[in-house]
Amino acid sequence: MSSAKTDNYFYAREAECMDRPQLQALQLQRLQQTVQHAYEHVAHYHKALDEARLKPADLGTLDDLAKFPFTVKDDLRAAYPFNLFAVPMNEVVRVHASSGTTGKPTVVGYTATDINTWADLMARSIACAGGRPGDIAHNAYGYGLFTGGLGAHYGAERLGCTVIPMSGGNSPKQIQLLQDFGAQILFATPSYALNIAEIAAKQGDDLASGPLRVGIFGAEPWSEGMRSELETRLGLQAIDIYGLSEILGPGVASECPEQAGLHGWEDHFLFEIIDPKTLQPLPCGEVGELVITTLTKQALPILRYRTHDITWLTDERCACGRSHVRIKRVIGRNDDMLIIRGVNVYPSQIEAALVGLEGLAPHYQLVVRRDGTLDTLSVDVEVAPGFSGDRKQLASTTGVHIKSMVGVTCCINVLDEGQVPRSQGKAVRVRDLRSQ
Ligand code: DLL
Q1: 330 C-alpha vs ligand 1 centroid, how far in Å?
Q2: Does 30 share its domain with 99?
Q3: Radius of gyration for the alpha carbons in the chain, expressed in angstroms and rounded
Q4: Domains held by the chain: number
Q5: Residue among 121, 122, 126, 220 to mutate when testing ligand 1 (max atoms within 8 A of CB)
Q6: Exposed, middle or buried, 258 (CB in 10 Å: 0-12/13-18/19+)?
Q7: By alpha-carbon position, which residue is closest to atom 20 of ligand 1?
Q8: Do 215 and 344 belong to one domain?
Q9: Distance 218 CA to ligand 1 centre (A)
């Protein structure tokens, strides 16, 4: 599908193709304003800068940002619900919250201007992905406190699309409306898009030869193998979109049809990669933790947010002509990394090794157990429909393949079709039985 490159189209050409010196001058000006705004209006930042003996005026160049303190998720939790907001509540027109499974959610807020900026950045991301005004956009991201649904909704409307606000779940209905309304764009998490594709195939519905053209998939790590599966099964170009609620929601970065990294919108965000151990900035090209500073947010300015997402940046100019830095596919979160007998493993690495193997379906879950003092890993994966070979043999060759690709020894359980739980939003890739 990747060969069917869409013609280039820009929602905001001037901003997306700005010369680097001009872009960096704009970043510095916006950064200085953001730091001033946070220092004056957010008690947390006032205290953090005072403790670091810094003033907003100490920010004379972009490199000076490295002296400023990080913001972490616990800072948002400690400020629950609204204490990091930099504007009075009557200027906050929307609140979203993270889907954290334990503890208090992290709450984020937007002014009317923030909502407007978000719609623009999502419109830019959708156009960058290959969406066009006039397209019908089927939105299967969850609506509610999660930013996926409303973020994609406002952005697609802003671009001039017709939005089908489906939300997640009820897959047969999704399939019926995809066919009856003839959407060209599908928004979903990659795992839920796969779920839709699978149910369509079971029902005998052929989505691949329908009008779907672009899948805008994100909110969870996914692999190139999963991309090929989705492109084949749905007959679209599968595009990676990145974002997080603390910074904006979806629309912080998006791939273009070149599928060679996500354009990070640098006129609104400043991206750094740090070594998560030393916390020192790393040069472009080195893998580390992504740190993001907002440059235009009013309600919730955030300085140096530690995303925990592991990736790397490239400043090589993309063939599409956009000048913004590209963020490579996120491998996973360093807080989701497993250490199995001394080997560091991200679930997406196991996915990359598994998906596409003959005899297996792309549905899997990792199970971690404790055996004495060591953690052990098993992989539950489903057999491909119609597979009639030897499952023991299949498990053994899969184990050898994972060992050679990822370096980890694991036990493979080849399960019947339908035995791995399906997702309607972010997939649960790891079942952690260590405390049981
Ligand atoms: O997941 C926002 C979003 C919605 C992004 C729809 C893309 C599409 P949160 O729920 O706050 O926000 O989760 C943010 O999800 O720090 C990453 O760990 C992960 N994530 C988001 N996009 C990607 C991606 C939304 N493309 C967290 N690849 C982030 C890998 C992703 N991980």
Answers
A1: 9
A2: yes
A3: 22
A4: 2
A5: 220
A6: middle
A7: 219
A8: no
A9: 6
Residues having CB closer than 6 A to ligand 1 are 98-99, 141, 146-148, 218-221, 240-245, 249-250, 307, 309, 330, 333
Domain boundary among 334, 368, 388: 334
Amino acid sitting at position 145: L
- Give the closest residue to 175 by CA, choosing from 233, 127, 119: 233
- Which pLDDT tens digit goes with each residue over 355-413? 999 999 999 999 999 988 889 999 999 999 999 999 999 999 999 999 999 999 999 99
Q: Of 334, 361, 383, at which residue does a domain stop?
A: 334
Residues 260 and 288 in one domain: yes
Pair (212, 245) in one structural domain: yes
| Predicted confidence (pLDDT) per residue in 181-205, tens digit | 999 999 999 999 999 999 999 999 9
Q: Tell me the per-residue pLDDT of 257-271, one tens digit each, with 9 for 90 and over.
A: 999 999 999 999 999
Dihedral angle of Cα 193, 198, 203, 209, to the nearest 10 degrees: 70
Is residue 247 located within the same domain as residue 112? yes
7 DSSP assignment: P
- Domain membership of residue 200 as a residue range: 1-334
Of 106, 242, 255, which is best to mutate to test ligand 1, by the most ligand atoms within 8 angstroms of its C-beta?
242
The pLDDT assigned to 8 comes to 86
